[in-house]
Structures
1.
Amino acid sequence: MSGRLTRLAVLLAVMTVWLCAAPYAHAGPCVRIELSPSAVNGVVGAQHNFVARGFDASGNDASINNPRWSTSGGGTLDPLSDICSYTATQAGDFTITCTQQGTTIRGTANIHTDPVSPVLTNIVVTPTSVNLLVGQSQLFTATGKDQYGGDFTISSPVWSTSGGGTLLTSGNICAYRATATGDFTITCRQQGLTLPQGTATIHTADASAAPIVRIIITPSLARLRPGQTQTFQAFGLTRGLRGTLVPLTGVQWRASGGTLTPTGGTCDFSSTRRGMYTITAALGRLRGSALVFVLWR
């Protein structure tokens, strides 16, 4: 039984050699090479397979002696004798060539590669990180990016947060109002898609726990005509929260002249006389001031 299998294997091997050699049995040397297909179109990332076929002077199939594959660019090659795979990595017009080793006999095919159409691949939320006090609000903006780094419109942005505040959305803009202390995130994605998504971090603190290091009055400079009124407001600059301004209450207001009407953290000032006046807000040992010029014109 084993003898029969051995003879059968030998017979098959002989037939295979004969069949492969038959097309070239009466062919002359290869003088021309053609590639199939002769031209292809695709996009970046596409793979194309090319076959090199040799011909003799009479147009008969001829064996290509040691085929050598090359390309003008735009992709990578994976050759295997007279077959070669080309994977496009760059948009443009390129060629792939098969050359018989040691000769100038070659065949060439054209490759046209288009870029992949832009798609949403990334979402950037700005600012990327903020520190807030409870009661404060922050606007966030989401910008979509395609695979080439260009701006891409986010269709129906969906905003969400891990907590600590409320959201008021309008397209790619979202207002976050802090309602609790802690560390949270705000996220934007496109409706119907889980990815990509953009995220920013939010740290919130209790206003009463943030030490005030300075009092700032707004506006810091005002120009009035006699009889006109200007409203000033006092803010506390906090430490450790990137200079967050906190509206103050219980402020003591003073002026170097004119008339003051204080209301907690705000104060109305007016004067019927020309001159320069100083407005002062005090809270404990902290002081803040603003200047007022009362002019006829």
2.
Amino acid sequence: MYIMKKNTLIINGKQYEVSGGTFSIEGNKVMENGKVLTEVSEQPVTIHIHGDVKELTVQGTVHVHGDVKGNIEATGHTIIEGDVEGDVEANGSLFVQGDIEGDIETNGDMTIQGDIEGDVESEGNLTLHGDVEGDIEVGRQGVFHGDVQGNIESKHDVTVQGDVRGNVQAKHDVTIQGDLNGQATAGTRVQCQQVVINESPFADNPNE
């Protein structure tokens, strides 16, 4: 059960004390749990939330200094300094400091510091520092510092420092510093530490 608590909400520099509920912006109205909190005339809207949030729907830029326990929809840049338990859709860039349990889609660059359980789709550059369980589509360059269990497809380069359990496809170069349990195809070059060919990419590991 999610327990709401008092948080600090800053909208275009003006501060409000709110509960950690569901926030949305509909036109010039800022809504909290379905009720109008305030109206803003200055555009674009920039929101800072200090504390945890249940859900976000924002036409503007949002910065959450806490966790989000629900879905996120934002038209501007999105920064989450905690974990996310839900799907994320952002038209601008996305930065998440914690883990994400849900699918992610963004039209801008994306940087995730934690682990991801869900599919990832980014039209811009993608940098993932943790492990990923899900399929990944990248519009530009993809850099993965952890392990990936899922397929990777990029319209530019793919660089994986960990292991990959899935297929990798890139328009230019593919570089995998760990093991690849799957197939890799690239328009120019494929470089891999070791390719595992004796098992299916998603077969159960009898040693686990």
3.
Amino acid sequence: MRLLPPADERSRLQLLEQTVIDRLRRALAGVVNVEAVKAAARAAIVLPGLFAFASTVIGNAQTSLFVAFGSFVLLVLVQFGGLRRTRFVGYAVFAAAGAGLIALGTLCVGHPWLAAGATAVAGFAILFAGAFSAYLAAAANGALLLFVLSANVPAPRAAIPDRLLGWVLAAGVGTTAALFLWPARRRADLRRAVAGAIRAVVDVIEAGPDERAERSEAARASEAGLAPRFLGSQHRPAGTTAATAALVALPDEFDWLLSLLEVTADQPALERSSQR
């Protein structure tokens, strides 16, 4: 029969394990960006074949251009997180919006002042919309570049169907690759880091007087690791929903809670010293 260690010993081992894992992740995060490697691999696999198909089979320069650039946008610049069904809806909406932006941008070709004004309006609307949703923020750069490319590459209005054909091909293949070929998990990693910080705070609350200092230091390390994860995310959590707002506010809330716990832990010592 296997003897289990005491509860305090198990808790200390779990805390040590979590601390080692967090430090290893932070060390590796500065050396290897796994999500960037996945995105580059997806683009390297899908983009050349799709461009070769458009160039040799379809044989239209505008279609080939937007197949190549559209694949790059969908596989590298735009990466939605969440459940597969939610991500599919995000990619579908982005594909529809991208088709509209390509058509509008093509209509501005040959009219510099119209293109400049339309770019200013479209850029403001796209970037401002990113403040209300993480998905809109993730799609902002790709949507803006689609419009700029369409407005700056010379082509007649009759080329709109050819451009849209390239974009539809890129959207179909790119969305399939993004959903099934090494899907992005940035938000899952962020939530996992938050869960680890919460466990560290709970350990501080449950710790005895002798262990509180050690666990408080570990909790501070976990809390300090949250800010770089938030700032280092390609698309930071944004939006007006309760879940997203809570996720954004967690680093500051952790700092406040740990400061409160540290002050509460010091109060008995202060009271004893005042009584003397």
4.
Amino acid sequence: MRTEPAFTVAAPRRTESNLMQSPSYLIVPLLQGFYWFDEGLQNYLRAKGWSKVTRAQSMIMVNVITGTRKPSDIARVLGISRQAVHATIEQMIEMDLVKLVDDPEDGRAKILELSEGGERRRKDARRAVVMLTKELSTRIGKQNVQNLLKAFSVDWGKPPDRFPQKK
């Protein structure tokens, strides 16, 4: 005689919550890590007496520092309109973070540079990133931070643009 178990354990349903915790859903912890650093950076800069900047302003500064200096290129990289970038740049000019200068490669175009105020803020931002990296090492371990740096420093190549079609 075969007996049935008193209860059965069903496989966990694939919910949005456990999907986001899956190792195959890397984008969520990447974004959470970015937010952690950005919020820590903003907290540090405010503690040093700097005015608050929006995330859009912060992202424009990062792009300028890493070499993307044409407003149209910044708009493309950030996935926002050129009008939104120009409006944000105007705010940043008023805050003495950036300035628009003639593009030496294209006399008709302008590019962004950090202003004197932007350079001063950048120096404090560098200190903040060093401090935040040390704090992260304390929280998650030095080896984990080194592994993150190693993984993010590898050339990932261009993002895929071809995917299998559903049948």
